[in-house]
Amino acid sequence: MLSVIIPTEGVEQTAVATLAALVPGAAAGIIKEVLLVDGTSSGVIERVADVAGCRFVGCEGSSQGAALAAGAREARSPWLMFLPAGAVLDTGWIEETTQFIQAVAASGRDRAAVFRYARSPYADTGFRDVLWSVARKLVGPLSDQGLLIARDHYDRLGGYPPQARRSEARLLRRLGRSSRTMLRSRIVMVA
User: Between helices 12-28 and 93-107, what is the axis angle to 10°?
Assistant: First the structure.
């Protein structure tokens, strides 16, 4: 049903935190595969993928957009979920994601979803956090809120432009407010 694509940037701890949060989704049968996309040549993420039973996609020296595009090309499911490494989803995400996918299929309309951002309760709050909070309210969701989108909708939009700066923001803008839903489930960045 769903392929999860996680760009890792070679950091094991954040990748493992996100993978641990996805275990209930795999047990419930909503996640068909998880792809760890890494642009470094350290081999750390390849070992994590092997131990966790994920697919590893190497794209050494690539931009974030190129890594996300490579993961989408390799994914086999009709639905794609892009999550940043270090993202942990609320426990209710499985049911809500399933309902969203069923509602989109029944309506026949192209829709995508992002998760509601929640700051980690253990993070220090600074001026920068206040600015990011204001930015989320003014411009809409940011790339660290994940993205749930049907593969055919993703392809029609042109996906993540591999060579563009801030390709995640460009795709969110192309979606627009009318075809984007904010899910109730929260996403927390642990690192």
Answer: 60
